[in-house]
Structure formats: C-alpha cells, structure tokens
Amino acid sequence: MKKLLRKRGIWKLFILLGCVAIVYFSFQILSIRVLSTHHRKERESAHHNTEVDLETDSKLPEKKKYLLDQNIHARSGKLPHEPSDSKKLRFTPKVNRASKLRQVSQKVPIGKFQARVEEPVEDPQVDVEQIKAKWSLHWTRGVQDIHQSLYLPDREGLFTCLKTKKKLPASQINDDYCDCPDSSDEPGTSACPNGRFYCRFQLPGSPAQSIPSSRVNDGICDCCDTSDEWANVTLDNDLKLPDSKTYAVYQAPCHNHCDLLLKKKGAQDKVQALGARLKHKYLQAAGQLGKERETYGANGVFYLLSQGCANVVMSGYKYNICPFKKITQQHGSEPTVNLGEKPSWIQVHSGIYQLLMSDGAGFPCPNGLKRSTVITFQCGLQDQVTSVQENERCKYEVIYLTPAAC
Hints:
This protein is of the alpha+beta class. The chain has helices at residues 2-6, 8-50, 54-59, 62-76, 97-107, 128-136, 258-285, and strands at 158-160, 167-169, 196-198, 210-212, 310-314, 317-322, 326-331, 337-340, 342-349, 352-358, 372-379, 384-392, 395-402. A five-stranded mixed β-sheet has the order 9-10-11-13-12.
C-alpha cells in the first residue's frame, strides 16, 4: 500500500477526481440559489397583485375588474367568484349580444331578414347592435327575400353598393335619389335608370317576378299585391284606359289579386301532373332515334311534333306550323310566305323550351332582314297552337301547348 501511494501517478488521479467533485457541487449550489431567488420573486409579485386599492378599483371599467378578479382568484387557488378574505370584487358579466345574434342568425335563413354578424363588436363608441336590431326587422322595399341581408348596414352604419362597392349611409337606401353607380341603393323607387323592383309577393315554385324600377309608382299595377304602387299615384284622366275586360291592365288605385294567380297556378300544377303522364308517349316515339335524338330536345321528347303540322287561322291569316321543318303564312289568296325553316334551340332546359325557326323570306323586311319565328313550347294536355303574334317587324312568336313540355 505504501509503495502504491509513493507513485506520482496515483496522486495525480486523486487530485483530478477532487477537482471534478468541487466543480460538480459548486454547480449544484449555484442552481439551488437561482431557483430559490426565482420562487421568491414570484411570491412577491403575487402578493403585490392581490393588494388592490379599493378607490382605484371603483374607477376601473367593469371588464377590467372582472379580469382582475379572475386573475386574483386563479393565483390564490380559489374558485371563480369565490369571495377573498379581505374584499369582494363583485361583477356580473355582460351577455355578448353580438355573439348571441351571430348564433341565432346562423340558424335562421337569410330570407327571414336576419342579420349575419361576422365578428363580435368591441368598439364601445359604435352601437352596432342597436343598428342591427333596427334593420334586422326592416324589410327593404323592392328587394328579394334572399337578398335582404345585403341591405343591412355594417358596423359603421354604412351600406355597400352591390357591384361598385361604394359605401354610403344606410339612410340613403330608397331615398328617391340614385347614389350607387350600379343603381343598387334604390330598389324600391324609380330614381335609378337600371334598377329592378321585386314584388313583395312571389308565386311559390315560380321564377322571381320583377319589373324595371322605372315602372314603380307609374299608375299601372304590375305586382299582384300592389307593392309596386306604394305611393298610390294615379294616372291622369287623359291617360286612363276605359274600364273594359279587353285590357289586361290594372290601373291605380290597385287592388290585391294574388288569389287569382294562386288559383291559376293551382290549375297549371294539375295540368303539369297530368301532362307528365302523357309525356311517356313522346319519349317512346324518340326511342328509335340515334345520335340525332338530342336535336329534338332532351331524350328527343319533341321528335313526335316534327312528324306533323298544326294549321291555325288567326287575325285573318292562315298559318301552317311544322316544328323543326317549316312555318308559313298566307293571307287570303296571296302567295304563301315563309316564316322560317332552319331550326335551332334558344333554350331547352329548366322548364323553358324555345325553338328558333330562322332563314325565312326576306321581302319586304328592312335592312335585308329575313323572317324568323320563335316557338315556345308550354305544358298542355294536347298538341295545340294557342297564339301567333308578330311583335316586331318580320319576327314572329308562337305558343305551342304539348305534353312533351310537361
């Protein structure tokens, strides 16, 4: 043992191990001191925050009081709204009406004129909720139900023009002065040149009924519910039409006749149901067709009409109407005039079927124009032409009832 200790290498090893031990224990002591200092500062900070000056606290806004109360209780280990040992911080949290309105609006269709709030309002200077509540119950005249929400003001009480995005006070909507370049601020008056007025009453299951805004308050009742003549403007005596059933025009003062339209639509729905059963014959007739089937509408449903002609006499003129082939007109003993012989579809979907028969006779049409005829196929229980009119020079329109259109 003594010989082993006399060797210098052993002493060097002991010295090295001692130095390592000293460094290790010094690091541990330093870490303990740092942690104790950190915990002491946290306790001092928590103790300082709990000392609330009552005079200063009474002047704080209620929201800050509530947050401070929650902070104190969280740090003191108490439950929210549990009274502290020294003083009680009482606060009844306010209901966030903007969030509540947003939740309700998400459940209610836009067509019920409810406001959709994009985000909670935090600015106390602008009482947006009061504005929203006022306008959410307001029906904007001349606007479709599904678009009513577009006329609610934003948080600053402004309306945004639908296309040009110009902003203006919501009070300028329907004030009889055109402010928006796109005419969207005057849906219920005749102030803007390119506006559209939508009647308040709409037939269920039918396309939306609208009129040019220039017809609002013109003395003619265009809407069955009289909503377009809300100012009760009457025509001058020299412009009034005689009270006769020959005129399908209602003049102010207007009277609600929507019940008549509902009865008429009910009868049309019955015809539609019966015609749909008869339509099978027309589809069956087109079964032999190949690629040319679509020429005669969806699944060739109008092919059977191309195999025959309808002869009618209207206003002294004889018409021979052969869909997809040729349409002619004859007056007395005069030569027959070609009204169109080249078929092409204008529209053949969504329940609207319009066939253009073009390339008819030209003389004496103006500017080298050739005669043409538009055949509008409508649902009926039998194949029947009910109307032929020349609404424009050398342009004709035919109403053709058929089960194929049901």
